[in-house]
Design goal:
Blueprint: H1 2-25, H2 36-52, H3 58-66, H4 68-95, E1 98-100, H5 108-119, E2 127-129, H6 132-177, H7 183-190, H8 197-219, H9 235-252, H10 259-278, H11 293-305, H12 314-338, H13 361-366, H14 378-385
Antiparallel strand pairs: 1-2
Length: about 375
């Protein structure tokens, strides 16, 4: 019995320490059939997202889902700590004798309590290890508990720093591609810029941003579950919008070069594919077409009305379809798994950007500035001047 407890405790501790090392320290994706973190997110994330899918209100659903990322990170750390405490208790149970001040019998529950107070360095002294092995285990557990707390203190700020960098780029995209973002709006606002300087600069920035997201999210996988600041924004929607826009430029836009677009497309597609593997999505062969013939016609007409002309002919359609097939299945699968809606290619409804919306807008429109009958229309002002 004692030997079995020792073996189980050693295996449990080895599994937890390996998993924690791979998640917190190892800066690469680990491909292994069983991992504690993967098991945890499947067992906890599945019911959470299934419950969220029954919430009809978009705002309430996003608020509910926003809790999962940070909360799951805390729960994962608690799971590691409890598993280590249990592992050390099993090792103590099989290691030898212990003494208790009041002379009461030593049970496994007592050793579990000893493991907990040692791990968190409380050290009440009411239970004392009596053998050299149990004393060594107590010292090891106290040091591991101290290291665990230090890791938590250093891990959380690093995760939130990576999250902050991601959200900066997503927020900046709001002014260029609308809220929610679309490829049509992005090209219409920047595609006709002199020497396409602004468009290439935006693509260049997103090439760097996509590589940063790839590195940070592989190093810290829970970041994939962190939601964005606004309900109409997400890392998936932003990345898909960039892929849509670069696909159009690569397929052919009159007056625009595609060199930078190709580089950005490659990096963004690499990021999306790798992150889809992190959240363990399943391929859906019957995923819906995001750009049917009618939408494609409206896309072409909408861009033409704003000074952007797509190339004509079957070659354009063939190349655009080939590019879309490289990323849309992954985007759809991630969206279904994380309940993140994909952006439209062209939004027929006129919507204000997030920066154009404020809680006082209605009151400002109803207030006269210089006399009766003069009210401020904030939406019209923003459209006229920006």
């Amino acid at each position: 019995m004692h030997i079995a407890a020792t073996i189980v405790g050693a295996v449990l501790m080895l599994a937890v320490l390996t998993d924690a090392f791979e998640v917190v320290v190892l800066p690469r994706r680990v491909e292994r059939r069983f991992r504690i973190t993967t098991w945890f997110y499947r067992r906890v994330g599945g019911p959470w997202y299934k419950l969220a899918s029954h919430i009809r209100s978009n705002r309430r659903r996003e608020n509910f889902l926003a809790y999962f990322g940070p909360l799951s990170l805390i729960l994962l750390l608690i799971l590691w700590a409890l598993a280590l405490i249990l592992g050390f208790a099993l090792l103590q149970y099989g290691s030898g004798e212990h003494l208790r001040l009041r002379g009461e019998p030593i049970t496994f529950g007592t050793l579990l309590y000893l493991s907990g107070e040692t791990f968190f360095t409380l050290g009440y002294g009411d239970i004392v290890p009596a053998s050299s092995i149990s004393r060594m285990l107590a010292v090891m557990e106290a040091g591991m508990g101290f290291a665990f707390l230090g890791t938590v203190v250093g891990y959380l700020p690093t995760v939130y720093s990576a999250f902050s960098r991601r959200e900066v780029q997503i927020s900046q995209l709001d002014a260029y591609a609308g809220s929610p973002p679309t490829a049509t709006e992005l090209l219409a606002r920047l595609g006709s810029s002199p020497e396409q300087r602004l468009l290439d600069q935006l693509f260049r920035d997103w090439e760097k941003s996509a590589s940063d997201v790839l590195e940070s999210h592989i190093s810290y996988p829970p970041l994939c579950f962190f939601r964005s600041q606004h309900k109409n924004q997400s890392w998936l929607a932003a990345l898909t919008t960039i892929l849509d826009a670069t696909s159009l430029v690569i397929a052919g836009v009159d007056g625009l070069e595609s060199d930078q677009a190709r580089q950005t497309f490659s990096m963004a597609r690499h990021t999306l594919v790798d992150l889809s593997q992190l959240v363990h999505v399943r391929f859906e062969p019957d995923y819906p077409d995001r750009l049917p013939a009618e939408a494609s016609l409206r896309l072409r007409q909408g861009l033409l009305e704003r000074g952007i002309e797509l190339k004509q002919g079957p070659e354009f359609e063939r190349q655009l379809l080939a590019l879309r097939m490289m990323y849309e299945p992954y985007a759809y699968a991630v969206g279904q798994t994380l309940l993140m809606p994909l952006p439209l290619w062209i939004d027929s409804e006129k919507k204000r950007d997030n920066w154009q919306v404020g809680p006082w807008d209605r009151a400002m429109q109803a207030r006269s500035l210089s006399g009766p009958g003069y009210a401020v229309d904030t939406q019209r002002l923003s459209e006229d001047h920006f």
